[in-house]
Design a protein that fits this description.
Quinone Oxidoreductase, Chain A, domain 1, seven-stranded mixed sheet, 11 helices, binds nicotinamide-adenine-dinucleotide, alpha/beta, binds zinc ion, single chain, about 375 residues
Length: about 375
């Protein structure tokens, strides 16, 4: 069938909307009409080339929600009309990681930036003038319709607003879990969140839920700092120097219990700043991504060892999408997790490049594409 989607033809490059040919669903696949897609910084990394992909053209988007319009043959548990939130990390349910409660690390993750069918790697679900088009995370949410494997789909109640729930596909669980699961924030803790955009704002919410006494948001953009204060931060400052000083003032000079790095383009220097902000046996969580070729952290190795500090990577907030997304929905419907407040600006699909320009200028907590 025909659809329209936003692709990059190369990196560095810009998203442009083109007419695409889309496969009808095979067994264990769903054809979904998109309702909304968040603009996550990771899609910008693909356009800048920070994160190299398997092949071009590449259809973007990995944070979305929609309605099932066709179910592949012999596909259990799904029906036309079902509402779905996608997970950018598919969960096969059978690999070592899925089987031990670490679905975010599912072996299917290896194909996230490859773009073809994981169960048939030479086959692509999208094409442009006869040329294969790779799908971001196997879902490509910057498309009016998309065909996905059921292992990327989480069914949700039909009375919930998909234009907000789309954020659960990446940003919300990634930030919330970075605080709750990866930093293991505990009541009374002092937490620094470095970079309070779409991900960091949810780390702020997570740290506040977990009972942190002091949640210090650090961001150079004043609007982000103001929003962080409304969503659970107790302090908001422009630089890590100030954030570290405040954390030390509450901890007898020792430093924060944890610091969570959620800046847009992470550098080793930023991680080192967060590492310097934590106390003995504290945790520095790295959630943000930077250039994939960058190596090394300028940290003092003696400080690492003698202060017994921990540097912890975090993918989708170290949570399993199949259980984590419904968990976030429960928090949202009970009024404990803010989603509506995260959506700053909505765009049409044709405005996708504008959405990323607004991300660069610091205008949005989250920009969201709404489909007709
Ligand atoms: N680990 C994962 O599972 C995962 C998932 C999604 C996104 N990400 C990554 O997380 C990062 C954040 O994504 P996002 O969508 O929230 O981006 P964003 O652009 O919405 O937010 C980044 C924020 O960092 C701030 N910032 C920039 N430099 C800073 C500095 N030196 N100190 C403090 N703040 C600074 C910006 O002002 C902005 O508010 C990206 O690198 C993205 O690729 C990781
Ligand atoms: Zn994302
Ligand atoms: Zn798996």
């Amino acid at each position: 069938m025909q659809t329209r989607g936003a692709i990059i033809r190369q990196a560095p490059g810009k998203y442009e909307v083109v007419d695409l040919e889309l496969d009808r669903p095979r067994q264990n696949e769903l054809l979904v009409k998109m309702v909304a897609s968040g603009l996550c910084h990771s899609d910008d990394h693909l356009a800048t080339g920070d994160l190299p992909v398997g092949s071009y053209p590449f259809c973007g988007g990995h944070e979305g929600a929609g309605v099932v319009v066709e179910v592949g043959p012999h596909t259990l548990d799904w029906a036309e009309g079902d509402h779905v939130v996608f997970s950018f990390l598919a969960g096969c349910g059978r690999c070592r990681w899925c089987a031990t409660g670490m679905q975010n690390l599912c072996d299917r993750g290896a194909s996230v930036l490859v773009g073809s069918r994981p169960d048939d790697p030479s086959s692509y679900r999208m094409s442009l003038d006869g040329q294969a088009v790779a799908q971001n995370s196997g879902i490509s949410t910057f498309s009016e319709h998309t065909t996905v494997h059921v292992s990327s789909a989480v069914k949700v109640d039909k009375d919930l607003p998909l234009d907000k729930l789309c954020l659960l596909g990446c940003g919300v669980g990634t930030g919330w879990g970075a605080a709750v699961n990866s930093a293991e924030v505990y009541p009374g803790h002092t937490v620094v969140v470095m970079g309070v955009g779409g991900i960091g704002m949810n780390a702020v919410q997570g740290a506040a839920h977990a009972g942190a006494a002091h949640v210090i948001a650090v961001d150079p953009v004043a609007f982000k700092r103001e929003t962080a204060l409304a969503l659970g931060a107790t302090h908001a400052v422009a630089t890590m120097e100030e954030g570290t000083e405040i954390a030390r003032s509450f901890t007898n000079g020792q430093g924060a219990d944890s610091a969570i790095v959620t800046t847009g383009v992470v550098t080793g220097e930023q991680v080192a700043q967060a590492f310097a902000a934590i106390r003995k046996a504290g945790t520095c969580v790295v959630t943000g991504l930077g250039n994939a070729m960058q190596m090394g952290l300028p940290i003092n190795l003696v400080e690492l060892v003698l202060y017994q500090k921990r540097i912890q990577g975090s993918l989708f907030g170290a949570s399993s999408p199949s259980s984590g997304i419904p968990w976030m929905i429960d928090l949202y419907t009970s009024g404990k997790l803010k989603l509506d407040e995260l959506v700053t600006t909505t765009y049409s699909l044709d405005q996708v490049a504008q959405g990323f320009e607004d991300m660069h200028s610091g205008k949005n907590i989250r920009g969201v594409i709404l489909f007709d």
